Amino acid sequence: MKYLFFSLRAQQWIKNFFIFLPMIFGGKLLEASVVLKEIAAFLLFSLTASVIYIVNDIIDVEKDRVHPTKRLRPIASGRVTIKQAKILALVLAIVSIPSAFILDITFGWILVVYFVFNFLYSKILKNAVIIDIFCIGFFFLLRIMAGSVIAEVEMSHWIIFMVVLLALFLGFNKRREEIRLLERQAASHREVLKKYSIYFIDQMTAVITSSIVVVYMLYTIDARTVRVFGTNHLIYTIPFVYYGIFRYLYIIHKVVKEGDPTRILLFDKKMQLNILFWVASCIAVIYFGL
Fold first, then answer.
1. Which of 152, 174, 190 corresponds to the end of one domain?
2. How far apart are CA 133 and CA 135, in angstroms?
3. DSSP string for residues in 132-152
């Protein structure tokens, strides 16, 4: 049971916290009914994501066995059999997807699109250079769309742009770390890695990093933002965004940890504090006009 739970990759559910952003920035955080629906959406999205993780681990089981860290995953290590993994994935899919339609029909369809495109990504798109990273951005966009539907709010286009850019930033840097860790074995683990180079990825990262900070800055001073929140004090949250981006780059370039954003978030205390301060400052400005 322990290894079946590990196969869900619950630590990756952190990515699904993006679902809560529309509720926070849409001014619905203090509405209990909305909060409960968002929590339900988060759980259902996470269970569906776990189905995809399990399917991916089944498909990539042989490739994962040559990876320095992925070989320790329950399916790759043999602690969970392929048959057990298939049964678990089927049960989770039967529970999560119909429940999503019960919660909200549009949310249910978003979850179906997320599931289908992840399957296409696993089979085809993850081997298409650059498009594989765009797919990651699309998956984060679906999370934002899901949160907006459940909270019944219209997200600012600036926030949508920033989230997609952030996903591209994390995706390119994850590819960079896979190349660094695997070196000559990179292509045997993931075919698309032979089409990338660390120099090329660093160039892409430089462009995206600048775009993220500029887009967030424009969001904080946008006329619609100031009108909706009744203040321009959101500009004081900009340093937290800068620090978060620079801290992540520092970790993967200097501390030389694995470039998985989930691992960095789980183990880097400074990054955790920075995100906490950013969220707290956004709430203070949006809800209390500070």
1. 152
2. 5
3. HHHHHHHHHHHHHHHHHHHHT
Q: In the prediction, which pLDDT does 188 show?
A: 58
Of 152, 185, 213, the last residue of a domain is: 152
Q: In this structure, are 203 and 134 located in the same domain?
A: no
Confidence at residue 10, expressed as pLDDT on a 0 to 100 scale: 86
Q: Is the CB of residue 173 less than 8 Å from the CB of residue 259?
A: yes
Residue-wise pLDDT for 117-167, tens only, equals 998 888 888 888 889 899 989 999 999 999 999 999 988 888 889 889 999
Query: How many other C-beta atoms lie within 10 A of the C-beta of residue 82?
Result: 12
Q: How many domains does the chain have?
A: 2
The 10s digit of each residue's pLDDT in 251-275 is: 888 776 555 677 777 788 999 999 9
Burial class (CB in 10 A: 0-12, 13-18, 19+), 136: buried
**From residue 277, how far is each of 107, 108, 239, 283 by CA, in Å?**
30, 33, 10, 10
Q: CB of 263 within 8 A of CB of 257?
A: yes
Which tokens in the block code for residue 164? 């997609």
Q: Are 134 and 168 in contact (CB under 8 A)?
A: yes
Instruction: List, for residues 80-125, the tens digit of each pLDDT value.
Output: 888 888 899 999 999 999 999 999 999 999 999 999 999 888 888 8
DSSP state at residue 15: G
At how many degrees (to 10) do helices 32-59 and 82-103 cross? 150
Count the neighbouring beta carbons within 10 Å of the beta carbon of residue 153: 17
Considering only CA atoms, which of 67, 22, 17 is closest in space to residue 45? Answer: 17
pTM (2 d.p.): 0.86
Q: Does residue 103 sit in the same domain as residue 33?
A: yes
